Amino acid sequence: LTEDRTTTSAKGLAAMPKRVVDVNRTEMMRFLKLTPRSVMGYSVVLPRKSEGYDEAIYPDIPAATPALSADKWFAGEDAEPKMQSMDPEKNPAAPVAAAFKVAPVKKAAAPAP
Q1: pLDDT per residue over 6-32, tens digit each?
Q2: What is the rounded distance in angstroms from the CA atom of residue 53 to the CA atom of residue 59?
Q3: DSSP states of 49-103 as a string?
Q4: How far lies 85's CA from each of 63, 77, 104, in Å?
């Protein structure tokens, strides 16, 4: 990993859900950094010789679909979470990567006071 050498202080940091990473670039994690004037995106990519989806790196993840309705959950029922494959070919409708492109962080001059 490289360092974040921006001079802007961080007010907060949030990890994005695993389902938004770009599996074709072997992206492992995506973060959002809140600064006083902006939100900056950061991406953690696993360096590899080959590109594309690799099942060994991306196990199934909990899906965005609930396993139970709220009524069933309040009634005391329990269920295992629904799982989704991160393989773009098995799950082409999954909201992975394409809708959440992270632009590279660019150093900008501070605005005049």
Answers
A1: 777 888 989 988 888 888 888 888 888
A2: 11
A3: SS-S--TTT---EE-SS-SS-HHHHHTT---PPPEE---TTT-TTS--SGGG--P
A4: 8, 25, 27
**Beta pairing class for 27-34 and 61-62:** unpaired
pLDDT tens for each residue of 46-65: 888 877 778 888 888 888 88
Q: What is the spatial distance between Cα 34 and Cα 31, in angstroms, rounded to a whole number?
A: 10
Question: Tokens representing 75?
Answer: 């009634």
Total residue length of the chain: 113
DSSP run (H or E) holding 42: strand 39-45
Instruction: Report residue 6 as tokens.
Output: 């921006």
The pTM assigned to this predicted structure is: 0.64
Contact 61, 51 (CB under 8 A): no
Strands 39-45 and 61-62: unpaired
Quote the tokens at residue 15: 């990890």
